[in-house]
Write a structure and sequence with these properties.
two-stranded antiparallel sheet, Hypothetical protein af1432, alpha+beta, seven-stranded mixed beta sheet, 3 domains, single chain, 499 residues, Beta Polymerase, domain 2, 13 strands, 24 helices
């Protein structure tokens, strides 16, 4: 029996070795796809007495069969030498990263970043390294973040360089570090968030020692600027498996320092009592919102605003939770509180103003539909729903539908039918009226002429009054709008000139 086990183990190892060899061949074949650009570059570097390697994410993506036209190279040539080598060959050359040893170049639509071997040291207080150029590919690879990013292909010889078994890790879909995780994360704490990002983007599992180091060192992420944290968080949310990435952040305590409102939702019980907690409910809503992203537009890109809103739509619940007589739980006005919390957190993470505004507005509006009941809303209420959502209406539709996570099939079907009915009413009213551009029936110039006013606050008040009428009653005829304006002006004590 023992001898049979040994034979099986040998066969298994041999099979794994064959798969890895085949993967190396596939990587080289994928590399050839970008020829002659890579070959042309390698020839120029060789002629100047230097070596050129495709490296990092480009090799990883080549192995995964998803190599893009943005290529990363590394070389023993110093930045000034790289500039001379690519000058006259590239369509464009830029040196915005030259202080870190990187020269950029483009050729026939392919973008190349060529970085001199690095052997950096870190002060472990900030994230900023003391840039030190290295002399070997092995020294360059050991300082990289993960083993799946610590592989290289020497372009001239098409030879594979993999000193840290990154190919085996890629085959197992495991995320590990070339050095110890503690060393790697102490050098650059952003790598902890990058681990969660790669879990989301690639669907990999972090090695146990990586999870332990992230847990022990999560507080080190505070050394990183908000802008860099935001960039990684956005990439995580736009990945294929954002739930896995968020769960890793929460599990390790990283989220406590980056997005504390998310683990904070574990304190609140979902009002439907169908989920373990609001945290799990929110992760489910995130997944369902992602499924709806392309329901009507199959080629739509991942939607950061929708995904942020889905993840954060209930962050106001812990602060508004109340235990009611009889064992119930309420979260009154959690959408109002949540919208304020969203604005505060996203501003702290340095998100653009439009993202902050859009996400907070979706959070504020996500409960509005539940007043629709069985279609009791008036047309006026439907108009207000559309007007308040504005350009976010399509996203609001998806968020509201995704927010239905009840396991009661009858209740879920009833909610979806109600929203189908609301969308049908919106479409019907939109055919009759221009809902996308609800404006008063008189513009500001007409208001000033009719009332004899100069520009000022009163004109704005009159405009808003007419808009409210427009929302309540739909389009008014010109004479009717003038009569309503005059009636309002009289109530305000405005002396209106004769018509």
């Amino acid at each position: 029996m023992g001898s049979q086990t040994t034979v099986n183990e040998r066969n298994s190892k041999a099979s794994a070795a064959r798969r890895l060899t085949e993967a190396k061949r596939n990587a080289v074949a994928e590399l050839m796809r970008v020829s002659p650009i890579a070959d042309e570059l390698a020839t120029r570097f060789a002629a100047a007495g230097h070596r050129l390697y495709l490296v990092g994410g480009s090799v990883r993506d080549a192995l995964l069969g998803r190599l893009s036209t943005d290529l990363d190279f590394t070389t023993d040539a110093r930045p000034e030498q790289v500039q001379r080598i690519v000058s006259g060959w590239a369509d464009a050359v830029w040196d915005t990263g030259i202080e870190f040893g990187t020269v950029g170049a483009s050729k026939n639509g392919t973008t190349c970043e060529i970085t001199t071997f690095r052997a950096d040291t870190y002060d472990r207080v900030s994230r900023n390294p003391e840039v030190v150029f290295g002399d070997t590919i092995e020294g360059d690879l050991v300082r990289r973040d993960f083993t799946v990013n610590a592989m290289a292909v020497e372009v001239a010889t098409k030879s594979f360089v993999d000193p840290h078994d990154g190919l085996a890790a890629l085959a197992r879909r495991v995320l590990d570090t070339p050095a110890t995780p503690e060393e790697s994360f102490a050098d650059d704490p952003l790598r902890m968030l990058r681990a969660a990002r790669f879990v989301s983007q690639l669907g990999f599992e972090p090695a146990p020692r990586v999870v332990k180091a992230m847990t022990d060192m999560s507080g080190e992420i505070r050394r990183i600027t908000a802008e860099r944290v935001q960039a990684e968080l956005s990439k995580l949310l736009l990945g294929k498996h954002p739930r896995k990435g968020i769960e890793l952040m929460v599990e390790t305590g990283l989220a406590d320092h980056v997005l504390p409102e998310v683990p904070g939702m574990r304190l609140a019980i979902d009002e439907h009592h169908q989920h373990k907690d609001v945290y799990q409910h929110s992760l489910t809503v995130l997944e369902q919102a992602i499924d709806l992203e392309t329901s009507h537009e199959p080629k739509l890109e991942p939607d950061l605003v929708l995904r942020l809103a889905a993840l954060l739509h209930d962050i106001g619940k812990p602060a508004t939770r109340r235990f009611e007589p009889g064992g119930g739980v309420s979260f009154h006005h959690h959408e109002v509180v949540g919208a304020k919390m969203v604005r505060k957190r996203l501003r702290a993470l340095r998100y653009p103003k439009d993202v902050v505004s859009d996400v907070s507005q979706l959070v504020f509006l996500h409960l509005r539909f539940h007043g629709y009941g069985r279609g009791e809303w008036t047309d006026s209420a439907v108009r207000r729903y559309v007007t308040d959502a504005g350009p976010l209406l399509s996203r609001l539709h998806k968020l509201v539908r995704a927010d239905c996570t009840t396991r009661n099939r009858r209740k879920a079907a009833a909610l979806q039918r109600s929203y189908d009915d609301l969308e049908a009413r919106i479409a019907r009213i939109a055919e009759e009226e221009d809902l996308a551009r609800v404006r008063p029936d008189l513009d500001g110039n007409e208001i000033m002429r009719i009332l004899g006013l100069q520009p000022g606050p009163l004109v704005g008040k009159a405009w808003r009054h007419l808009k409210e009428l427009r929302l309540d009653r739909g389009p008014l005829g010109h004479d009717e709008a003038v009569a309503e304006l005059r009636r309002w002006a009289a109530e305000q004590g405005i002396d209106v000139p004769d018509a």
